[in-house]
Sequence to fold (623 residues):
Amino acid sequence: MFKYVLRNMWRRKARTFLTVFGIVVGIFALTVLGALSARLNQQVKGARDWYSSKISVVPAGSSLFGGDSGYLELSKVAEIQAVPGVKNAIAGFGLPLEEGSTGFGTPEFIIGADLSQAEDELNLIKIKEGRILQDGDQGKVVLGSTLAEKFDAKVGGTVQLKGEPFEVVGIYEPTLSAPDSFAFVSYEDALNLFRAANPYFQVDNIAATIDVIPQPGVDMEELAQRIDESVEGVKVISPAEAEKQISQFSLIFNAILLGIGFIALVVGGLSIINTMIMSVSERTQEIGLKKAIGAETGSVLSEYLLESALIGFSGGLIGMLLGLLAVFLLNNATASNQVAVFTITWMVIVGPVVFATVLGTAAGLFPAFRAARLKPVDALKED
Amino acid sequence: MIVTRGITKVYNIGPVEIKAVDGLDISIEAGEFLSIVGPSGSGKTTLLHLIGLLDVPTSGSVSIDGQEAGALSPKELTRLRREKLGFVFQEFNLLPVLGARENVELPLRYLKVPSQERHRRAMEALEMVGLTNRADNRPSQLSGGERQRVAIARALVTDPVLVLADEPTGELDTHNTCKVIELMRDLNRETGQTFAIVTHDSMVADYTRRVITLRDGKVESDIAGLEKDPVCEADAEDIR
Ligand SMILES: Nc1ncnc2c1ncn2[C@@H]1O[C@H](COP(=O)(O)OP(=O)(O)OP(=O)(O)O)[C@@H](O)[C@H]1O
Ligand SMILES: [Mg+2]
Fold:
């Protein structure tokens, strides 16, 4: 039967090809975006790990991903420190490594932290070589894995951050997330770099964020609540809140992906339905003949379902392979910048093909039932 | 063997009621070679479809080998067709994407016959119609007469109790018509295969031993015991 179905499809080469091509386009887009989304989700997962073990305090009206609401007074650190259950309140100051470097991949950041408090936080990521920053370190940097690779840095070597030399004292293990593109320095160093870059800005005794490490056994959500109640003019982002903001971020992207999938579904599905209805109507007599000489309803049904499933499957397979090729080429093209834009997971490979096959089968249901239901007399009388 | 009792088929076209077949009692015995003739619209095709279990009568009954068709579900009717009947139609007989042998094998496939046996029986049937050398040709590569012979092979391959043919020579020239009807007559004589042939063509009817003439859905005449034995004119193709 398989051979027979293939021959029938081959009989209308141009039409079959065009229908398959329609699926290919949709599935291609779906695969590329899927790989993009897989990369994003990986980063989001990393970000989740990074933010879920601490509470972030930011200026009121701001979010995890920044805002225009200025900075926090350093005096807040003491206030937060005084809240029961807080182990460390770590003043932090971050600035982009390069001005205006946006686009794909994780933005690179210089992250300054109050080293007298930050030991627990800096230990959240495993160190690969050297050591984490210690209280009193000046002009020293610990690099995330991506940055270390980009600078070709070694422990004991020197890297330039915004034109200033820093001694590399440690390199972190890859986390496949945001901190990989961070350069960790002391709070003072970060602030000085910022001042040098923005001479008109009067910044002193301020922090961009205050990260809170709770005492062991303290419920983080309750602690976040307590900080919120006892400290004025701040916004407290608990792990749950961070989770929400992070999900919101990936939600938008997943919505776009869903949208593309929906378009592929409608366009591809309709074109398969159209093709199959044409196939059925031009083969009405054939169907009548088959039924006359003893074909079961089910055998006619499965024949047409197989045909539409095959259209879906081949479109899915070709689209997915072209998508992978594109992803591979794009990743290669950007490899020199140390940014992998796409991640290829099993889901990215298998998902679109399964999707297209299911789509093909579902789109074939209506025409196939129509074919299978034909009465032999009516079908034979058709001209 | 095949008995119809008062079968009637009524078509309603708007308020108009057409009795395409009107209360026919016909019985066909094993080994018969009969034709059904009559003017256009007299109900020949309708009758053939009713006997062939392709259509359900408005009233009356059809029985094949003692089995009442009226009591059967569509699925059981399909099975009965598969097992007991062979069909030859006027033009659309063969699936275009299958070769001659594959077309002949098709009913055996529906009977779930294993592939080797299918292959052997299909070749035997093609041998009966003299087309073993065209086994791998697609219908488009065969002449009209050859296509009808393949269709006859397909009808014979399941060893049916009755082969029903609706204008099997309708698309053929005189010579090919003669060859095809001669082939069916020879098969009837040699193997005792029962044939019922709907035709317009008096030459075809002349070959058959019994001729049923329909008019307005009723039997006008039913003459058996005919023994005409015309012979096809030889033509260039036969001189080897
Ligand atoms: N599906 C249908 N709906 C309505 N009327 C029909 C239908 N099929 C056949 N008829 C009518 O039934 C009558 C008998 O038709 P049938 O096809 O059996 O004639 P026939 O003897 O085979 O004619 P022909 O020699 O032209 O093939 C005709 O009047 C025809 O118009
Ligand atoms: Mg007719």
Notes: Chain B has one domain: 2-224. The first strand of chain B starts at residue 2 and ends at 13. The domain at 2-224 of chain B is CATH 3.40.50.300 (Rossmann fold).
